[in-house]
Amino acid sequence: MIFVTVGTQLPFERLIEAVDLWAAEHPETEVFAQVGETRYQARHMTCVEKLGPGEYTEKFNQADVVVSHVGMGTIISGLEHAKPLVLMPRLAEKGEHRNNHQLGTAEKFAKYKQIQFVNTAQELNTAISACLATKLSSEQGCPETSVNLIKKLKSFVNEE
Question: Among candidates 58, 59, 44, which has minimal Cα distance to 2?
């Protein structure tokens, strides 16, 4: 199952439309998306506007691949649970965010093999298919440096 989440702050129609196009080409794969407030009407995946914390965790844990914006919560959870992540940064020039900080975040996390950053629908299509073809096992997990990074990030976030 592919779990898609856009967070709760702003719509991210470019991502939702790209995943919907992928889902149209792969009807054998279940796709569940938390889409927030969006005008785009997906036709090839199950969508909800919001999920409660328990539902979110359940879907995240069930996922073979998680597709999202470049949000720190998703990155931390993905590293913790050894989930392959396909992340598309929101772009300010497309009205998807107030600034381009997600590009900087993507640059900092580019070294992690379980995270694939994409900018286009075609890149997203290729990345999801590659993740499903190679499915990271939970035994592979994240390297020890990632465990330390997760601890530091959690500490920083909890201080805010």
Answer: 59
